[in-house]
Amino acid sequence: MAEQSSGGGATPWLAFIVGGLLVAVVIVAFMMYSGRTLAGPDTVDVNIEAPKIPDAPKLPDVPAPKPG
To answer: Does some domain include residue 3?
Structure first.
């Protein structure tokens, strides 16, 4: 008599991958429709004040050229 095989070996793995993708899609859809997100608020308010630096020293006056 001929032996009957139980099927291909890839079918359980394919079902596992498709099931995982389905669960991921359901979780993402639930979070989007319920208004929950993993990200924080959309606005960020950052105020950084730079320290005051002293004024540059004054340069001496340039002497006038000698007439000549």
So the answer is: no
